[in-house]
Amino acid sequence: MFICPVCGNLLQKEEKAYTCPKGHNYDLAKEGYVYLLPPNKKHSKDPGDNKQMVAARRAFLETGLYQPFSDELNRLALEYLGENRSPVVLDAGCGEGYYTGRLALALGERARVFGFDISKCAVRAAAKRYREIAFAVGSSFGIPFADAAADLVVNVFAPIVPEELARVVKPGGHLILAVPGERHLYGLKEILYEHPYENPYKETEYPGFTFLQRTAVAREITITDPQTMLNLFAMTPYYWKTGVEGGENLRQTQRLETHIEFHFLVYQRNLT
Where is the Methyltransferase domain (predicted)? Predict the structure, then answer.
């Protein structure tokens, strides 16, 4: 299902590489992923999450505090895939693979699951742990996936490029987006910022898709382990935005109580 980032032809997986009909070759890393990010799609030398951020994300997600979100994503995927006997599922912006891996487990052997992310560190970690899933390093602005190939695309807090998503989802297929609720991590923001803010609530239509439903999953969580607090901070956009004072406030915090909330938006790809 992966395509050549140079010519757009479908890639064939060989023993040690992916190849295309025009002779372009992409070696498989020892962990099993393929690098399909051309230089003109990179905004820095090593875009996306670095090694430390990937480790922090994995450590936090393994606490199980975000498992209710993963469970709801899996439930929706099973619902909308229905009786499809051999669905193709793509995780667009898979990170270190937590949601991808649990989704593949929920769908079972009937599904072919793929994932890509712009972070090489994240994809390496995902491929190393979830060997049964095909992973690639790639960009949301040029998804390395065949036209109309996916029965379902999921996207959890990753960049959204509507025309690319419309290209890879087959007519009648579905798109599930996870976005933060208005007060998601508000307790963390109260520690980091003098003037904490709520996330905007948006009703968004995307060309080529019909909106079907929104479902929300919310919890109140308490964290007392300092490292877990720092891991949560490191996997959020606030990590890049917060000044020295906010970071120091978090390091001095002994107890974090916060609301967490994901909204799942489900869309169907139009038939025409």
Answer: 89-173
Asked if residue 247 lies in contact with residue 163, where contact means CB atoms within 8 angstroms, the answer is no
How far is Cα 233 from Cα 43, in angstroms, rounded to an integer? 23
Domain 12-269 falls in which CATH fold? Rossmann fold (3.40.50)
Which string of DSSP letters, residue by residue, matches 116-141?
Answer: EES-HHHHHHHHHH-TTSEEEE-BTT
Instruction: Give 124: exposed, middle or buried? Use CB within 10 Å, 0-12, 13-18, 19+.
Output: buried
Cα gap 219→71, rounded to integer Å: 13
Q: What is the pLDDT of residues 190-248, one digit of tens each?
A: 999 999 999 999 989 999 999 999 999 999 999 999 999 999 999 998 988 898 899 99
pLDDT at 26: 97
Name the CA dihedral angle for 88, 91, 97, 98, rounded to a multiple of 10 degrees: -90
CB atoms within 10 A of CB 170: 17
Element holding 236 (H helix, E strand): none
Domain layout of the chain by residue ranges: 12-269
